[in-house]
Amino acid sequence: MYWCIITLCTVGYGDLVPVTFLGKVLAASTSIAGILLLAVPISIVSGSFQTLYERRRGLTEFVNTYVSHFAMDISISGITIMFNRYKKRHQHRESKNDDRLSWAVHVVHEMTAFNYMHAMNAQLTLGDREIEENVNKFFIKWTTVEDGRTRR
To answer: Which of 8, 41, 67, 110 has its CA 20 to 30 A from that of 17?
Structure first.
């Protein structure tokens, strides 16, 4: 039984081996206790890493699903308000200018959404506390869109 425990614990044997029954029991119990003492901290550390990974994955899913739609809604509403104001000021101009302007609004909208997603992905390289603070600041800043302006 002693050789089985020593082999399974990967302690092996060397120049000094216990000869008596009590020595073998002590060596086997010490080997098992050593394995258990290492297993507890390793499981705690791996559990902490798993928790951090799950939080990061949850934030990534949030950014990929909800925030992209949120950014598009904000940019669409702001650009639409600006576009309508521009049209009211320049109604006497030709219609081809309106077509050009609507294309420019479309391009600006795509660039705004892309820049926003790039900024959010850059936030993922920060620590978890910094990410939560920056996401909260972003929502406080951008959820107050009124009449094409933001309150800061």
So the answer is: 41
